[in-house]
Amino acid sequence: MKRIALAAAFSLATTSAFAGNIAEPVMEPEVIAEETSSSAGAGILLPVLAIVLVAAAVAIAD
Known about the structure:
mainly alpha, 0% strand, single chain
């Protein structure tokens, strides 16, 4: 039991010893989102098209 406790203590000590790094921290470049010029109705085009296709499929199935 003492060996397991000693092994656990050594493993915790070594992981904290290697946790640091002497290299300089690297900063990520800041990403600035660009505003695109799109129409307001473009976001609704796909759902409306899907509803039309489903309605057409139902009409053909009858």
